[in-house]
Amino acid sequence: MAGDEPLIKLMDVHKIYKLGEVKVHALRGVNLEVKKGEFVAIVGPSGSGKSTLLNMIGAMDRPTKGKVFIEGRDITNMSDKERAALRLHKIGFVFQQYYLIPWLPAIKSVEVPMMIAGVPPAERRKKAEALLREVGLGDRMYHRPSELSGGEQQRVAIARALANDPEILLADEPTGNLDTKTGAEIVALIRRLNEERGVTCVVVTHDLEVAAAAKRVLYLRDGRILPRAPPTMLGKEKALRPGEEGG
Ligand SMILES: Nc1ncnc2c1ncn2[C@@H]1O[C@H](COP(=O)(O)OP(=O)(O)OP(=O)(O)O)[C@@H](O)[C@H]1O
Ligand SMILES: [Mg+2]
To answer: What is d(CA 84, CA 38) in angstroms, rounded to the nearest whole number?
Structure first.
């Protein structure tokens, strides 16, 4: 990757979902650059295209039009196999619903991506233990999801997302199912991973407190990134630093 090349770059990205006769234009020409080490929040109302946008960055889905580059490589042209490898090694994904496998103890959940990546058993066990300690779950390694609180389940999901040392952490409403205090702890954890591990973070949220923890905030409305904070959001949250954001 060239010196100042953005880690993530979207050029005129459109996404049109077709459901029978009905077309939904979920993204309408998104341009975005995220540099290595950034912590970006994407805020916008329900249906504005936040999850769709994150899925484009995370190689979970392909744009109808436009290009997505990760480390300068066009991922829209990659084969499914190359995209799967990218998701396994470069990108960690965290969701509102955690998506943990119900019968797996935390340690196993964290080991799964390493198993898929071919990491030997002893090594992946050691790494999973270290990751669970890092997210504050050193004493919950053998608990299954039903034996963990929501915040603890999200910590397991974050540890799992970090299993193969991804450069990018993508989180879709990571605090959406949590109370304010637990949500703030998860945000603090993500922020620490950004600052200490240097993981580039893109977090989608409609929680302004989550957005306030980010270093840059982007506003999505009807599938477009707004050039500045919409008036409805100004004054509510000083930390949003209107004027700094924009794609
Ligand atoms: N698989 C799909 N098929 C058809 N339409 C879809 C699909 N996924 C999303 N949409 C539509 O695209 C638009 C954007 O959806 P998206 O899930 O990206 O919004 P969002 O900003 O994440 O909303 P929320 O805050 O409610 O999660 C919505 O109008 C939605 O109905
Ligand atoms: Mg969504």
So the answer is: 24
